[in-house]
Amino acid sequence: MANKGRATFAKRQKEIARQERAREKAAKRVDKEKVKVERTGDYDPDIAGIIPGPQPLPYDLPEEEVAKEDEQDKP
Asked: Rounded to an integer, what distance in angstroms lies between the CA atom of residue 34 and that of residue 47?
């Protein structure tokens, strides 16, 4: 009969761990909902900072080469 107390203690520890996991999951759900609300709207982080139209060159070309490219582009 001495083992009954030990089983009850282990059962209580298990229940406390389950409750803690449930609290963590609930907190994550709330955080995800906040992020979801923030993302809805006109702001898209994937395309933030992109400007429509011709994009600047990723490196600097000498002015002579830029002029040559402009002449070649014109029909």
From this structure: 21
